[in-house]
Amino acid sequence: NPSNGIFNIDLTNLNNCSLIEIYNLLGEKIYSSSNSTQQATNKIDISKNGKGIYFVEIYDGEKVSTEKIVIE
Asked: Measured at the alpha carbon of residue 23, what is the angle toward residues 66 and 64, in degrees to the nearest 5?
């Protein structure tokens, strides 16, 4: 972090990741992916959305983790 818009999310420490969503600063959802295959690493490309700050939400069963990512 910062990123060029292409990054990986490592889910090896999570028990059950069911959904990954990314929001811009206005709260608009720009990316959503269900992790039905339960992959350990997910490659995400949001480079077409331009520079700025985004929030990645990872749903792990009933718990939600939020991380900030900066796109340059």
From this structure: 25
Q: Is the pLDDT of residue 3 over 60?
A: yes
The per-residue pLDDT for range 24-53, each reduced to its tens digit, is: 999 999 999 886 556 677 789 999 998 999
In this structure, what is the dihedral angle of CA atoms 69, 2, 33, 13, given to the nearest 10 degrees?
A: -80
Residue 69 pLDDT class (50, 70, 90 cuts): very high
Rounded CA separation 48/58 (Å): 21
Are the C-beta atoms of residues 50 and 71 closer than 8 Å to each other? yes
Name 56's Cβ contacts closer than 8 Å, sequence gap at least 6. Answer: 9, 20, 21, 22, 66, 67, 68, 69
Q: Which three-class secondary structure state does DSSP give residue 48?
A: helix
